[in-house]
Amino acid sequence: MKMTQIPLLDLQQEIAELRPQLLRAMEDVLDGGAFIMGAQVKQLEAELAAYLGTKHAITLNSGTDALVIGLLAAGIGPGDEVITTPFTFFATAEAISRVGAVPVFADVDPLTYNLDLEAVEAALTPQTKAVIPVHLFGRPLDMDRLMTLAGQHDLIVIEDTAQAFGAEVNGKKAGTIGHIGCYSFFPSKNLGAYGDGGLLTTDDPKLAEAAAMLRTHGSKRKYYNEIMGFNSRLDELQAAILRVKLPRIDEQNEARRRVAARYNERLGDIPGLMLPGEVTSSSKQVFHQYTVRVLNGRRDELQAGLAEAGISTMVYYPVPVHRQPVYADGLHILPLAEHLAQEVLSLPIWPHMDEEVQNLVVQQIRNVLCT
Ligand SMILES: *Cc1c(COP(=O)(O)O)cnc(C)c1O
Fold first, then answer.
1. What is the pLDDT of residues 14-71, one digit of tens each?
2. Taking Cα atoms as reference points, which of 165, 245, 227, 157 lies closest to residue 198?
3. For ligand 1, what atom is nearest to the CA of residue 186?
4. Whose CA is nearest to atom 14 of ligand 1?
5. How many angstroms is it from 3 CA to the middle of ligand 1?
6. pTM, full prediction
7. Domains defined along the chain, listed by start
8. Distance from residue 64's CA to the centre of ligand 1 (Å)
9. Per-residue pLDDT for 78 more than 70?
């Protein structure tokens, strides 16, 4: 029997569609002769600022650097506590530790997988300086409530928007509601480059100036270095590639929503499966992942059953961050995040995923769970 192979994410489809434009854009860079901080980066930053509705868009080397640079720009460092979620990619907490601050993990909401704002409130101390919410799997957090809480306690809010480029909260783009937004252009993200890349957004000119200086060795003017910085620039090739892809992002995210809606429709009646819920009508999720909860201890069985049929799935995340060796000090007890780590399973999703391919995934889920 010939086995179908269904990946978690198919990047080749987009490359095939855009190949002529991508090659032309890359040739323009080669012919232009500027490879770092040239016209492509400048134009991309203007286009990103316009798309997102933010005053400043500063491209960087990665989403991780955006978090580190955002924290430093905001003056967060040793002695400060930063509240974040344990149910995220490691980089969120790593950035906090990297600048010498202490990550304080608050538990998550088991329906949205995002930070539980009551848990955030309970985790506040006089040392709390900032909160880093993560719009996990492309689902935006309730930013209005978080900003009210932040206002009451004078907290900086840095949105980890790595998985939610293009998502909206009450008509505003995710990442532009807090003081700083951090995005990643890692190839598998919704707006992905073909290498590493990141972005920091803010409306605050002081934060923007600090971030821009940190990006290039702490200098405003070449060879005049005022503070300790980094080399964290996006290169011209990646900027040119992103400029080809940015105009299509809304259509791509809309296509992801359609795939997600089909999953919701076709998986809804399967017992023991919890589907990702809807967001409020004024918000839009972008389904970086389509992540279900498999109840009754059957997650690993379902994952194995799908693998047998050639269907790739992933557990994001098998170990919550507070349980990673570098943080496992026993201080945090976060039952909901730990519970989710046992139950979540991310199914194949990408824009324009073929309906027949998706039906194979649905059928195999039925084969495993309904027998
Ligand atoms: C991908 C990701 C990052 C890091 O982005 P990089 O560009 O890979 O450094 C940070 N936070 C979250 C939630 C992510 O998914």
1. 999 999 999 999 999 999 999 999 999 999 999 999 999 999 999 999 999 999 999 9
2. 165
3. 7
4. 162
5. 33
6. 0.97
7. 12-247 (3.40.640.10), 250-369 (3.90.1150.10)
8. 6
9. yes
